[in-house]
Structure formats: structure tokens, C-alpha cells
Amino acid sequence: MLSTRRNNANHQAKHAFDQFTKQMIIQDANCPSDQTARYSPINYDNHRRGVYLNASSDMINRRGEGTTYYHELAHMIDHAATGFNGNLSNTQEFRQALLSDGQRILNAYNNATDEGRHSFVDSLRRNDRTHSFQDLLDATINGAVNVGWSHSRSYWQQPGNLQAEAFAHFFEASMGAKDKLERLAFYFPKAFSSPSSAPVDEEYYAIEDDFAKRFGHKVPREMLPDSISMNQIKKTMKSCLASNKDCLMEILGIPNDETFLY
Ligand SMILES: [Zn+2]
After folding, report:
1. What residues contact 232, with CB distance under 8 A and at least 6 apart?
2. What is the Å distance from ligand 1's center to 70 Cα?
3. Closest of 66, 79, 14 to residue 37, by C-alpha
């Protein structure tokens, strides 16, 4: 199930997931089911950094199978992407984008008819897969519309928590939950296009820029199998640059077969 979601993930999320896989730690996959799943960013003696969840209840998660797994790992990726020094998502720009998107939704809600408002809330309550949208809506309009799924008001008051939850919800949706991803992208377009909404490997793009300048074309990543990691592509681009030979596809073992579509 989790691998099906991984296979259906969008490219950027999959690469991010693969890039950080080695740093991901599930401390406990058998947490008592009456405990809230969580990512613990701080290393305590008796509570190590990592994800704590109940994997078997996540398999029958009403928000979608594996939702908790990908959500909590996303919190860890957000943290790992800075070398465990704060969260990548924690920028004012991302916060403002989220709040502005939320305000636009609230305005539309306030301008709707009674019937329109009722059917909007009703459609959310009938579909637990809208949980992440509900949570971000709740946070960005300060609970002005009473939906079902949300964190607490005091949780939202902690600096950075809004951005961290948005990052985790976006990432979870990107890992093979197309309906959630489309809903979030539709309602939170500014936040969705914010650079803080997903990890980007800056070094990769710097090398790719050098590569494109030197050889006059970019790396055709859509043609590379997913088993090739970002790190392998980076290493290969570096060796092409060092030898001044444009033989990336040969090194990566990609045949030039004109009869296929990629
Ligand atoms: Zn969370």
C-alpha cells in the first residue's frame, strides 16, 4: 500500500522522499493507538528524534491509508532539509501566502448564499479525505468556519506551526493522493506555488545550471528511471563537467531508443 502511494507520487515529492530516506527514522511504528502520532524533532534521552505512529491503524486510516505515515515523515523531511536546524517551511512568505489564500476562501464563503455555505461545509464533513484542507482552512481563518478536522487554537499560535502543517499536508497529498493534492492546489494556490512548500535541492539545481551552460541542454529527467536518485544524477553531472564530456545518458545507462515514448 505504501509503495503504491510512493509509485503514484508526483516527481518532486518522490525525489524529496528518496533524497531524505536515509535520514528518516521511524522510532516506533507500534505506538499505543490511544496516543497521537507525532514527529519528535528534539532528541531526548528517552524520546529520540523521529516519527511515532501506530502503523496498523494507519492502514485503515479514515483520512486515507498511510496518511499518518507520510504526514509525520514530511515533518521530518521539513526538518532534515535544513540539516535539522529549524524547518525549511518556516518563512514569513509562506505564512503570508497561506493566510492570503485562506482569506480569499473566507470572503467567498461569506459572499455565498446560506445554501451555498451549508453545502460547502457539508461536503467537507462528508469526506474525511478533505481533512488536510479543513485543517489549513481552520488555521488560516482562525476557526471562522466550523469544519471537522483541525489542530487546536493554541497549537496554531506557536510560530512556524502553520507553515509546518501546510508543508506536511502538501507533501502527504503529493505522495499519491491526487484528490487531496488537487483540492489543496485549487484552494491554496499562492501557498502551493511558494518555494517553502516543498524541499528543493539547491545544490542539484546549481550543478544543473552549470551543466546546461556547458553543454547547451538540461538533463532530461523525465526520461530517467525513478531508480536513479538525485544524488546519482548530481554525481554524473559533476563527472561530465570535470571531463568536459556530455555523456550523462551513457553513464547512467539510458539507451537512446527512438521507438519509445518517455
Ligand atoms: Zn502535523
Report:
1. 252
2. 10
3. 66
Rounding to the nearest 10 degrees, give the CA dihedral for residues 131, 132, 133, 136. 120
The identity of residue 103, as a single letter, is Q
- With cell 485562506, the residue in question is 102
* Amino acid in position 10: N
212 — phi, psi (to 5°)? -65, -40
Give CA–CA dist 60/49, Å, rounded: 26
In the reported structure, the alpha carbon of residue 104 is separated from the centroid of ligand 1 by a whole-number distance in angstroms of 23
Is residue 145 within 8 Å of residue 109, measured between CB atoms? yes
Alpha carbon of 169 to ligand 1 centroid (Å) = 7
Q: Which residues surround ligand 1, an ion (CB under 5 A)?
A: 165, 168
CB 249 within 8 Å of CB 256 = yes
Q: Over the stretch 207-259, which tens digit does the pLDDT of each residue have?
A: 998 999 999 988 888 888 877 877 789 899 999 999 999 999 889 888 877 77
